[in-house]
Write a structure and sequence with these properties.
seven-stranded mixed sheet, D-Amino Acid Oxidase, Chain A, domain 2, binds flavin-adenine dinucleotide, FAD/NAD(P)-binding domain
Amino acid sequence: MPSQTFDIAIIGAGPSGSACALALRNSGLSVVIVDKEIFPRDKVCGDAVPGMAFKAMDHLGHDWGKTMRDFSEKTEINSTEAFLPNGKSIKRNWSGYSYNCKRIDLDNFLLQLVKTNTSTTILENNRVVNATINNEFVELTLLDGKLLKASVIIGCDGANSVIARQLGNFDFRGDHLATAVRCYFRDVEGLKKGVNEVHFFKELMPGYFWIFPLENGWSNVGYGIFADKTGKNKETINLREVMQKIISEFPSIAPRFQNAELIGGYKGFALPLGTRKNQISGERFMLCGDAAALINPVGGNGIDNAMWSGILAAEQAIRCFSDADFSANYMRNFDKTVYKKLGRQLFYSTCLMRIFQRFPSLVNKMSSVVQYQTFTKYFMKFFKI
Ligand SMILES: Cc1cc2nc3c(=O)[nH]c(=O)nc-3n(C[C@H](O)[C@H](O)[C@H](O)COP(=O)(O)OP(=O)(O)OC[C@H]3O[C@@H](n4cnc5c(N)ncnc54)[C@H](O)[C@@H]3O)c2cc1C
């Protein structure tokens, strides 16, 4: 079958892929973005869009940061309230602008920006099944048999990335991976305007349950924990059963769900955590977002890091073309810029996560610690709570 040739192929049109395509808009390079789904499509997530995601859009110019802040399908959020196992709670205001928005809407909005502002070729409903690197190009095979050639490919294809599996050299197993289940409810009682809730329960550590309010009386409700707690041979936890138990039996939660209606079903998904520095590039390829395991292990936020890594990949790709260098060695600049931008935040969050993992009861001490202003500021800045 004859192949189509592009300068750059982006695999995946989530936040990392769309941000990458937007960042390439004035590069003069031919770009294709391939996604296995047809947009709008759902993505299992907490739907909390972190402040740094808006900053990524500001960085792209064109008033896109403002356009994203003005997006109508949003519920503005200004604080997070954490409910601790000892019955106390801590509420802290966020310093930056933020909102909750269903990913089906957010990701479609971002891809629409790509469609209307760039000349990117967009192939939806087609999955990349194979990627092979040759001396001169990368060849991609799609599910329908189509072949694409590109000088550079950017793997933005999420937690189950085929590009990371075939070209990368790290895995996300053990406690570098979390897993979570999410569902939508209508009419959960006791929600506070502008507040995301996170609940820690002694018997369910180290994991947490969340309720994030959305538009029209909906809430995003979920529970997440390290994946090694859900593996076949360990102390197995069935996330769906845990969620149902919390919602129907836990005294602080169950009464609030008595009149709530479940919309759709329970959906689970993996969260590759940014708990260590991985090699996220090689000859002619880069990995972004979840494909590069960049989720903050404490906040669970990955939309912002996905967008920033997409932008940094675009900037590296432009440098590759201007210097005519696609070698693995040259690509390492991408790893450096990503970890320079995100590494500090991920490192401190990982340290905090390891402390809570080892000493789960310490989570109760958060209420005393956050009374100290300076510490709180430091804590919130780095751990995005
Ligand atoms: C339960 C849960 C809750 C979360 N809550 C939050 C939260 O509240 N806030 C936050 O910031 N982050 C949250 N995250 C993390 C966040 O969802 C991810 O970090 C973010 O979606 C990563 O973006 P991405 O572009 O890298 O990948 P994705 O958003 O996963 O996009 C990948 C895209 O690639 C496509 N694709 C996959 N494979 C192929 C293929 N072979 N060929 C073609 N296309 C392919 C997919 O269809 C998809 O559109 C949560 C994650 C989970 C699982």
